[in-house]
Amino acid sequence: RLFVRGGGRCVIVDMNAGSGEQVVQSLPAGSAIVVHTDVSDESQVANVRARALDAFGRIDILVNAAGISSYFGPALVEDTTLSDWNRMISINLTGTFLMSKHVLVDMKRQRYGRIVNIASTAVLGAGYRGQAPYAASKAGVVGLMRALAREGGPFGITCNGVGPGPTKTPTRSLLVEKEQDFIETVPVGFLGEADDIANPVVFLCSQEARFVTGQLVYVDGGVSIPWNIDHIIPPPQTPSAREHP
Predict the structure, then answer these.
(1) pLDDT tens-place string over residues 72-131
(2) Cβ distance 65 to 23 under 8 Å?
(3) By C-alpha distance, which of 183, 142, 187 is closest to 166?
(4) Catalytic residue of the set 71, 112, 128, 134
(5) What does the alpha-carbon distance between residue 14 and residue 28 come to, in Å, rounded to a whole number?
């Protein structure tokens, strides 16, 4: 919606074609299409490129936002099945690779492109207990981002990443269920919403960000600030409580 509001035309790529069509219907006529796609399937990804070129003539921007978390909830590494691991990697990392691979042909030819990968605070040093496949997939997304930035730079292509913090979306059931617990982990004192993540994505795809590439931007209300030791440091005195000579 933010891209269309700024004059863009969009291809919505999703396994859930029904919800994608609802979004298309809410936008100005001709500004968006939806392509039902499993991003881990290269033939389906190639079809996305073909449909995009047929509908709009060129591809300037790719936002790799397709992703999943664990189907069955947290699991320790020794309890994680190979099938669960492979499914996570195939969508979160391989899907990002395939989408990038297929649009780079057009971006290099036109010598212009913007790629933004949605990463996660899971790539931070603290890690996510019970979410090793997810954390590994998102760390891979960051590594791929930097390789794309290096390879794309000479062709006028930038690639950056956005690492969302706790954000209220319909699929984040645990976050909604334990909202106050999550809020207490966020220095700004509230949870993000979809536009809070979308706005920096739009910026990174703009001409104003032409000198920004290979960077991971955490949009997380301060969650990524390391080593909170506030609880062991005496609080500063207010001016009224200080002694004056």
Answers:
(1) 677 888 999 999 999 999 999 999 999 999 999 999 999 999 999 999 988 875 567 788
(2) no
(3) 183
(4) 134
(5) 20
